[in-house]
Amino acid sequence: MTASEQPMIHWIEEDQPRSARWRSENGNPAPKRVVIADDRMTADSAYRLACEGTGMLWRGDFQNARQLLQALARRAEPKADKRGKPRKQPVSPTDAFNLHRQAQSQRARTLGMLLLPFDADYSIPLRRAPDVQLACNEAYGAPAEPFVASLRELLGLIGAHEWRKKGVEIAALGARIHPHYGVYSPVRGEYIGLVEAAPLPSTKLAFDIGTGTGVLAALLAKRGVERIVATDMDPRALRCARENLVRLELDGQVTLLQADLFPEGRAPLVICNPPWIPARPSSPIEHAVYDPESRMLRGFLGGLAQHLEPGGEGWLILSDLAEHLGLRSRAELLAAIEAAGLKVLGKTDIRPQHPKASDEADPLHAARAAELTSLWRLGAA
User: Fold this and answer.
1) Ramachandran bin of 24, using left for φ above 0, alpha for ψ from -120 to 50, beta for the remaining angles
2) What's the pLDDT at 367?
3) Residues 60, 126: contact at Cβ < 8 Å?
């Protein structure tokens, strides 16, 4: 949605009706009611308003707004019983997942009610406000008009800007990949090691489906594949991949193409790392994690045989977390592979090393502790 397509929000200030454009890259709806808030507002009052769905347009000190948001976050944490255990005890991994997502969604709505004004040049007209113009330019594009956005979204923009500036170290490349706002960051890099170690069926040509930051296209180029065609539907991802490939001086080997899954033609190697969880995204940014009804996975499997050269391989990178959550069975995956006219040539696994895998307080700990990430080598049956 472009800035001009975003809705307007309205409020009363100094007894006068006011309005401004609402902006949310997360796709959060505009609050229907907005009141003015400043340093005099208590955390309890703010939390009550936020739970009611009332937006609070901040006119006080910016750093005080950040402290208030932290106080709201503490109040939004799940409540425990007297023994310190969560009151809701899910009866299955699927229930745990659904309750976790519901809690995340409710928390996001509540914390998104603390709002900030932005001038047309992305400056924030508040005391002690930081310079966020570069972060906003990276996420929103060229400025156009004043608007209102949530403080929580702004902090996400700032965090994305820092990740983009710092980058993510990729050992297999001996370099950093710099993710853009809204493009999935390869912070969980275990799957990159699988791609680095798998024997290449050919070094002539490869297709990288859903390239994202371009990390796998870069790795294939680094491994000596002469030509890679990397596709993605998201213009942001394509810009991000292009910037990374130019920085790595690998852009001469990689052609970037906006396409829904496959480019035209066939290749001896086709690689895809689809979203791993078959669930509905609650915001545009979650499309890299959640794949409703396994659409991208099924689309890749369904079209793979028609895009493989004789004797070619399709590399599917997939976590089995969905299986441990009861969202997709191994039998369903194998049936989809068979129905697509494919056979399994081999599979290599790796256990994730991210902190949540060992965090017993995580609501999904049991599933995460059992998770494996796999590279499935597929061929035409």
Assistant:
1) beta
2) 87
3) yes
